[in-house]
Amino acid sequence: MKLFDEGVFSNPEWRQPARSLMQQNKKTKVAWLYTHLLFRTGGTRFVLEVTRRLQESCDVDVIVERASPEIRKEFSQYGIEVRETGLLTSTSMIYWLFFPLMLWINEKRVRRETKDADVVISGMFPMNVVAAGLNKPTIQNCWEPFAFFYDTHMINGFTLPKRLLIKTLAALYSGTDIAGTRKSDIITTLNHSTGEWLRRVYGRDGVKTYMGVDADFFRPVSGQSSQVKRNEKIILHSTDYTMMKGTGYLVEALPLILDKVRDVKVVITHTVENKKERDALLKKAKTLGVDKNMEFIGTVPYDKLPEHLSHADLVAFTGHPESIGTTASLMVLEAMACETPVVRSIGCDEEVEDGVSGILVDPRDKVKLSGAIVKILMDKDLGKKMGKEGRNRVVTLYNWDRVCSIFSGVIESAIQKHLSPHTLTKIPSPSR
Predict the structure, then answer these.
(1) Contact indicator for 30, 122 with CB cutoff of 8 Å
(2) Residues 273/226/245/91 CA torsion (nearest 10 deg)
(3) Euclidean distance between CA atoms 309 and 302, whole angstroms
(4) Which pLDDT tens digit goes with each residue over 362-407?
(5) Which of 352, 266, 269, 340 is nearest to 310 (CA)?
(6) Contact, 58 vs 158, CB < 8 A?
(7) pLDDT at 3
(8) Cα separation of 63 and 89, whole Å?
(9) What is the rounded CA–CA span in Å between residue 320 and residue 153?
């Protein structure tokens, strides 16, 4: 599939805006609104990598509801100030019980913090709603529609009380989310798969930015992990204990994998701790007789990721194919950069070339999932070939400097579009 065939690379509007602030020798002031920077997820990495590169030509401030001290410190190393608007964020139940008040606090404080901003970039709900009310050029960096409102597969994975709460919130506020997104001057999104979701939910097209990987940092690391037995085959998997990661599918396929390949261990990292769900997975594994072949190692420090990825025989991404969250995976790309072959859910067909840099599979079919994994584990030469092809693909197509270049063009275009507004072409919204 040909990537980067839309947006800044084919439309001169993104490349040559009329009289930009940069052309006037004035640094553009950018305010990037995000809900929280509490976990080292792909979203946090995306914001950091793009804003630190934008900082070379713009004045960038990141405004969030909450940020962890460690992540705030990492941003500050690149001269980026992370400002907080409140004590609570969307990870708190209290936040949602008092959401109108939380939104009012956000709007009041963000308006003050963005007074001098030339352009505002927002993330997901509710920051898109806050941005829409600022009367400034706005870009919504919308990787996907807000999963808690629209991703039924993820929602159904929660307990009944949580499902009822989420559905109530969706009924109350999904219209507000849609209105906020439709008011954005420009929307950016990750790829064609996420773009399809934008059209279905919001009736808008998005400029495709794709993800990026630091291929100088994520590269093959030689040697063998001290945690691994000499002949043990390692399947590395990352989870947040939702259907977006589909860890349960991997557990169910493990008995079939062990029938073909001995000494296999599934090493599971997480971005969010959830002891209850972890215990449930271990209980399922014990029932299947494979609990001794699984190890949960928690959150891996960022500087250790290349080592873990390189020492794995393959990385398995097994999210539910119809879940919004399966349309992009930074870990898949980072594994490819480390020359580790990938077995990936069919939720996206752009990151992995099926049969070339990895294998695409529907993880709901445990026979096909186990077959794809076994195929790579049993053929060392195939794994090496796929690994090298994967790194070549990442180095060529998934580059943070390229992503930042797209954002630079979109920022200038948003400013000009705001100065000379015209009617947006809307795509009819199909029923959800």
Answers:
(1) no
(2) 20
(3) 11
(4) 999 999 999 999 999 999 999 999 999 999 999 989 999 999 999 9
(5) 340
(6) no
(7) 52
(8) 12
(9) 7
Between CA 83 and CA 92, with CA 89 as vertex, the angle to 5 degrees is: 155
Q: Which two tokens stand for residue 123?
A: 């993330």
- What token pair was written down for 421? 């507004």
Q: Residue 55 has which token pair? A: 């900082």
- Joined together, the tokens standing for residue 357 give 């840099």
CA distance 168 to 396: 44
Q: How many CA atoms lie within 13 A of 402 on its CB side?
A: 20
CB-based contact 96:169 (threshold 8 Å)? yes
pTM: 0.83
Q: Nearest Cα to 89, choosing from 114, 61, 125, 117?
A: 125
- Strand 207-208 and strand 233-239: pairing? unpaired
From CA 414, how far away is CA 186, in angstroms rounded? 6
Handedness of CA 413, 414, 416, 417 (dihedral sign): positive
- For residue 65, give both structure tokens: 């509801």
Q: Which residues contact 125 (CB under 8 A, 6 or more apart)?
A: 146, 149, 173, 176, 177, 180
d(CA 54, CA 48): 10
- The candidate with the shortest Cα–Cα distance to 93, out of 175, 174, 158, 176, is 158
pLDDT of residue 137 exceeding 70: yes
**Token digits of residue 155:** 């929602």
Tens-digit pLDDT profile for residues 303-333: 999 999 999 999 999 999 988 878 889 999 9
Secondary structure (3-state) at 79: coil
